[in-house]
Amino acid sequence: MSTTLAVGGMSCGHCEQAVEEAIEALAGVQDAEADRDAEQVAVDGDISIEQLVTAVEDAGYEPKA
């Protein structure tokens, strides 16, 4: 299953990496690809939006669910 979540506050490659790592640490996630220009992260795996929102918030960024 593929999910896309809007994410604010990413301004550099390090930000993208931080978001990706936070999401990829969740059980059920196979891959995450953040795009700061599009202000979103694409996630492959069996994961709820609520879990994604929490992971993004915990990483210090602004989910826009």
UniProtKB/TrEMBL annotation:
HMA domain span: 1-64
Protein's recorded name: Heavy-metal-associated protein
A Pfam entry, by short name: HMA
Stored PROSITE patterns: HMA_2
A molecular function (GO) term: metal ion binding
UniProt-listed InterPro entries: HMA_dom, HMA_dom_sf
Xref: SUPFAM superfamilies: HMA, heavy metal-associated domain
Top-rank taxon: Archaea
Originating organism: Haloarcula vallismortis ATCC 29715
Lineage: Archaea, Methanobacteriati, Methanobacteriota, Stenosarchaea group, Halobacteria
